[in-house]
Predict the structure.
Amino acid sequence: MPAEDTIADKLIELEPDIHASLEGGSTFLKFPKKLEIHFTELDTPKRRKRILLLGLFAIILFDLFCIADRFMLPDIYVTAWKIRLGVITPAMCFFLVLISIHKLNRFIDLFAGFLLLLTSGTIVWFLILSQHPNVVHYHTGIILIITFGNIVVRIRFLYAFGFSVAILLLYVFAIDLVSQMPAEAADNSSLVLLTAAIISLIGNYQLESEIRRDFLLTLLQKINTIKLKETNRKLELLSISDELTGTANRRHFDITFEREWNSAARNEYPISLIFLDIDFFKSYNDNYGHQAGDRCLKKIGDALNRSVRRSRDLLARYGGEEFVVLLPHTEMEEAFQIAENIRIHIQNMDIRHSYSEITNQITVSLGVASALPNLQTKSSYLIEQADAALYQAKNNGRNRVVRYSFA
């Protein structure tokens, strides 16, 4: 099955889950299993690229705060630089390497969350180490980290929530160890940090919900397009097909034959036609009934479809129990052999016909004509010759192939 058809089938299979997720509203943060897998497959490569780029940007920003260390933490700035540049920056680079590994796709948010926790923990560490009064203002860096992770990087909401809580708890338990932080300032900074976390989590939730909702709506649009194409394809097929036998209809044959004739005339290649008629089909219908006759026609149509396999060949029901096979790029000898193979194949199907005048099974008569078209000759001439050959086959006793040479 072509890849495009496989993708289309996969999307249509997901449609019930898409509607269920849209109706669920607040459940956007987690789709049903198959839909979540499809979402992850499409979204992860884009998220990995974004997180890697933002991670590199975060490293630069994090190291730029060496400037702030010099003025805000004058008593420990050298130690802070060693920690930033010698420990945390390499650790951040290591996590970015892990994020870039495709086999670790499912851990991307976990690694990104650890980066947030690591950098926040570094600031808390600096708060504890410093004895300078300016340290009371240094906690604002944690607000920036939480906001950057939840709103800019946009790690998944559940991870954002978990790591935000972890950072808050780390700060609350560690703040009592900051000697220069008055109790009132400590309480206020905790409250501000909590507020920043809540606001950023609300934004994170809304962003992820919108992304997932847009994803669902996009899938539905694709599914509707697929269904529309399939409907149009079926309508087009109905317009060119014979409903009973599944072969092309007379109208489609006429259009195709005329086009093929003109092409053959321009490019100088031969065309052959095979006209086929089921022997004594009227007596078959009269004695077995029209439903049995329809079943017989369908079996013949199926057999002919299996016999005519080349992409440019065309099999059509010409009318009643008569079929026609168009064979571009085919000389008389090859067309005659194809016709003989069809005759033998249908006879070997052994469809019972006790009212046939030549045998007790369904047989067919076939007429073959071949030509090298030119623009001065009408295509109807070849049809007349094939029809004449068929008439001769029937007059010669039926259940045979007769060729007609085009002069």
